[in-house]
Design a protein that fits this description.
- By secondary structure, the protein is an alpha/beta fold.
- About 45% of the residues lie in helices and about 20% in strands.
- The longest helix is centred in the N-terminal third of the chain and has 25 residues.
- About 30% of the residues are buried.
């Protein structure tokens, strides 16, 4: 170990500088002084005999060598965290951490309910929920930063072979309109009626917007003909805009249960059309699977899943149990006590 030209603390500092963009903000995030950070970077550069930062600009920019070290450093730190969590697992769910990922809609409306049920049963397990784009969430699962995730978008193609991706549940998208709109008097509307409405939508570049457009296209609804009056950056903002009479919108039914119950939004059926998308469970079969993740998968996930889904997750569990057994058994089998 003494021959290694860097320490874990130095890798943590390098990662913090890259994330924060400056030595000072990195020092603040790590609760150390800026001179201490600068000294560690200088020592690291001297030990490696390469510059890691281009100090010409106002923002700390990594050199090619810096990017290379950061790439490997993140993998090393991730494995260290995984090791600590595996050791915590020996306490048999009397502690430990469960990290769950989600895309925006599932993370806002579905996962909090699931985590609440899990926490009631296992109050000593610390639970973290990371809500990001589908792409970023998938990479977090691939890198071992997240145990499992439920997402609604498409998995990046380069990750399709390294992740287990299982259809988890159907998420219905509902057309909502203001409660005082004339269409509320109709039992159902026709597809052509959609093109008479003014729509409130998410930003055209957002993953959720693209997914909604794709799902509607499969139902032979041309979203290019929609009169989009306003683009907003959150589902909550869209619901408030519809409630205020600014237009109509397609949103997940999981996002409007409370508003429908209170009678502040109206859900309008479309003749012959049921708009659904698939929610996916993603896991990394080559990473350590904690007991907390196993308990969440076996006891909580089935309660919200499609019928028959549990057969698929049991296959994942069996694979991960084999991996866990091999990892834990290796030191003993080699004769080390």
């Amino acid at each position: 170990m003494s021959d290694l030209p860097f320490t874990l603390d130095q890798l943590r500092i390098l990662k913090a500088i890259a994330q924060e963009g400056s030595f000072k903000r990195a020092a603040d995030s790590l609760y150390v002084s800026q001179p201490a950070v600068s000294l560690q970077v200088q020592n690291l550069e001297r030990q490696l005999d390469v510059p890691l930062f281009d100090r010409g600009g106002r923002r700390a920019q990594l050199t090619e060598a810096g990017h290379l070290l950061l790439n490997y450093g993140e993998k090393i730190l991730s494995l260290c965290q995984e090791t600590c969590r595996a050791i915590e697992d020996l306490q048999n769910l009397q502690g430990g951490t469960l990290i769950v990922g989600a895309s925006q809609t599932t993370g806002t409306y579905l996962l909090p309910r699931m985590i609440g049920m899990f926490r009631q049963k296992y109050p000593d397990v610390a639970v973290q929920l990371h809500v990001h784009s589908t792409r970023r969430t998938a990479w977090s699962v691939a890198n071992g930063q997240v145990d499992l995730a439920i997402i609604g978008g498409e998995i990046p193609g380069e990750l399709s072979e390294s992740l287990d991706v299982i259809p988890y549940a159907e998420d219905e998208l509902a057309l909502i309109i203001p409660v005082f709109h004339p269409f509320t008097k109709l039992e159902k509307i026709q597809k052509e009626d959609l093109y008479k409405l003014q729509f409130i939508a998410l930003d055209s570049q957002s993953t959720i917007r693209k997914v909604i457009d794709q799902v509607l296209a499969r139902c032979e609804i041309d979203t290019r003909r929609f009169k989009v009056e306003m683009e907003l950056n959150s589902i909550e903002a869209i619901k408030n805009a519809v409630q205020s009479g600014l237009g109509a919108a397609f949103v997940s039914t999981s996002a409007i249960a409370k508003e429908l119950q209170m009678g502040v939004l109206h859900r309008t059926p479309i003749e012959g059309v049921v708009v659904k998308r698939t929610l996916w469970l993603i896991c990394n079969p080559n990473r350590y699977r904690s007991k907390a993740a196993e308990a969440f998968s076996q006891e909580i996930l089935p309660q919200f899943a499609n019928p028959g889904w549990n057969k698929d997750v049991l296959k994942l569990t069996q694979k991960s149990l084999v991996l866990t057994t091999l990892e834990v058994a290796t030191p003993t089998s080699s004769g080390e006590d």
